[in-house]
Amino acid sequence: MNPANESRAGRHEERSVFAVGTYKLLTVIIGTIGVFGFCNNLLVILLYCKFKRLRTPTSLLLVNISLSDLLVSVVGINFTLASCVKGRWMWSQATCVWDGFSNSLCGIVSIMTLAALAYERYIRVVHAQVVDFPWVWRAIGHIWLYSLAWTGAPLLGWNRYTLEIHQLGCSLDWASKDPNDAAFILLFLLGYVEHFLKLFLNRFQEQKDLEPFGD
């Protein structure tokens, strides 16, 4: 474990970042988000399972988003909520790693599923194509594997999960000056840019191909 991270995790007990009233407000906000997030996402999953007419490939992508958001409400918000109540990070370094990993994993899953959902809408409208369940299951599998690959790398030593500046939760070490850590952050961000750039270029090319027909 990096000694700098351990000392950073240890200094949180020495001072508070926010005023007492701010911590109380954050407790209410995060607690409300957690309760509504849990109830609403659980309801989506239950409705999908109960009503057969809702079991469509597109709805399955929405269920995947609800599942990842539900996991955040169950395993992600609790540590931050308790820290807001206490006014500081009150958990161990191992818990910090778990908090950073679980929130990052579910966050990437939600973002990538939204990208897949946007692509599904695009091919439905532009190409009049409808995705089937095998396509959606493959997409979901790839999304989780992609997310696990990026969030698992810090567990193996490429970057790390550390206490954030507000000292209420943990995330990647975005401020590290180490070249390897900086390379991870850069490649991580470029991964998002690549996906959206491909969608933009494909859209641009298709519009260009349709121009002669429009004239």
Automatic annotation (TrEMBL):
Instruction: Name the chain's protein.
Output: Opsin 3
**Could you tell me which residue ranges the G-protein coupled receptors family 1 profile domain spans?**
40-134
As for family, the record states: Belongs to the G-protein coupled receptor 1 family.
Provide the transmembrane region boundaries.
25-48, 60-81, 101-123, 135-153, 182-201
Membrane topology classification: Multi-pass membrane protein
Recorded GO MF terms: G protein-coupled receptor activity
Reply yes or no: does the keyword Signal apply: no
* UniProt keyword terms in alphabetical order: G-protein coupled receptor, Membrane, Receptor, Transducer, Transmembrane, Transmembrane helix
An example Gene Ontology CC term for this record: membrane
- Subcellular location, record wording: Membrane
Q: Does the keyword Transmembrane helix apply?
A: yes
Which Pfam families does the record match to this protein?
7tm_1
User: Sorted alphabetically, which PROSITE patterns does this protein's record hold?
Assistant: G_PROTEIN_RECEP_F1_1 (PS00237), G_PROTEIN_RECEP_F1_2 (PS50262)
Q: What organism is the protein native to?
A: Oryzias sinensis
Q: Which InterPro entries match?
A: GPCR_opsins, GPCR_Rhodpsn, GPCR_Rhodpsn_7TM
